[in-house]
Prior knowledge:
single chain, alpha+beta, seven-stranded antiparallel β-sheet, four-stranded antiparallel β-sheet, about 30% helix, about 20% strand, elongated
Amino acid sequence: MTDTIGGKYTLLDAGRAGRLGTWHTVSTAEGKQRGALRLEDRGLTDPAAAQRLADAVSGQARLRVPGLLNVIDQVTEGRHSWLITNAAPSPTVAQALAAGVTLPPAVAALIATDTAQTLLKLHSGQLAHGELNAHGVVISAGGAALLAEAGYGHAVLGTTPGPGHDAAGWSRLLAQLADACHDAVTQQLLRQAGQQAEAVGGSAGITAALTTLSGAAQQITGFGDRAALKSLAARMHPLATTPVSASPMSAPPVSAPPVSAPPVAAPPVSGPPAFPAQQPWAAAPAFPPGAPAGVPAAEETVQLAGGSHSGPPPQPPRTAPPTAVMPVVPPDGATRMGNRAAEEQRKSGAYQVGRAAPPQAQQPQQDVNLRFGQGVPPAPPAWQMAAAQAAPPPRPRKTVGKRIAAFFSALTTVALLVIAGYVGWNWWQERNNAVQVTKVTVTPVVPPTTAECNVNVDVVGLIETDGQAGVITYEWLRNDGETSGALEQAVKDGTRSVQVHLFWRFQGKGTREAEATLRILKPTVIQGSSKFTYSCK
Length: 537
């Protein structure tokens, strides 16, 4: 394997195994560390799988989740495809646990809250990780827990991840963090939060557990201070010169009172509309302030399906804006929320799409990370609470007598409405039925001549009107006692006559005198008739 990728990135380590390939730490020409995932050929032999993976990467880029290991570039060199991420992919929580590192309570709680917030942000964009575990949680140099390969495995397999997968994966992660933390109170807090998330399920479960966890973690000394997490990232980094020791990490002495862990059972939560075939998705959170508004043209992203070629990327003309941009997390990979300096630069136009980024000296990057410690409001942001708002208290149950009375009251109301509707309809029909019948005539009938004694006689009645629109109600009467019952005939405006028919069937031999009468019932009573003789020998 060569030491460079596409002439732009230099390999710095031997790599570690990932879900879809091998992760490496690389360096740019400016000396910034990035992550590089070399995709395995067997996972992308199917063009449909490659397209689904490209769609997953593009969807996360559009969402701009700061807690992810986001893809900022793609390079194709030889038969290998590389996905370049905004931060180094090591160390991971799994590597720290495998080295026997004892996690201080504040560090374990920070990793738990960071990953929960990132999962909820994914859910708000109708996305999910689907395969969360300790191997996919990267500890960045900025002291934040980042999620790697979110949804990649499901995209290649053609399955759909959901909040239910993430709630179960986060619960298992919290159990591993509790095992690596030797503080009994923090262990109990993490395990109960994981059980609560899995019991409620989906985004609502993670939100409810995060609310409980972040509230109780305020009593943990050092919670919100990312110095210990940065120190762990520096010690565990594959390029670190200091050997990793399995001894516990130093933590400030705990002087706060013990944390009271709440029970596992959570009140019922009201979740937003369900996502297909999975748990309810969290309500859409507000986008964190200070997130970058765009990517400078120098970090133009190439879609996965087409790929880029090896060698330095072609330089577009200065007057042409980039054809595609992808948001990028700052180089240290920190979960930046509330970065006022970046927000002011965005408002001033320094980060507008299509413009080159200002010199490094004019872009101070303060270490403003997401934290729950001192100096921030105690309540979590609204987007964390949206999916786990407690349902209103149940109303007192009605007695059997009250239920029966309410049922009959509703039944009476429905019956009155039906009666009122029927009366109103008849009244409207009478008021709007302006047609008047002036004459009724039944055409003389000539029975058909046939050798068979089985014939149908068509008796035709002619109703003459005054030319107005309306509905005529009529009936046919036969002298054998049969009647057709009330029938209706609609008449359009300007129609002065209309025909109605009576089909009379005769069977058998003999002679019979027949008479058919057409009687008008509405709007006025009037009738006409005709006689004929049926004979068959």
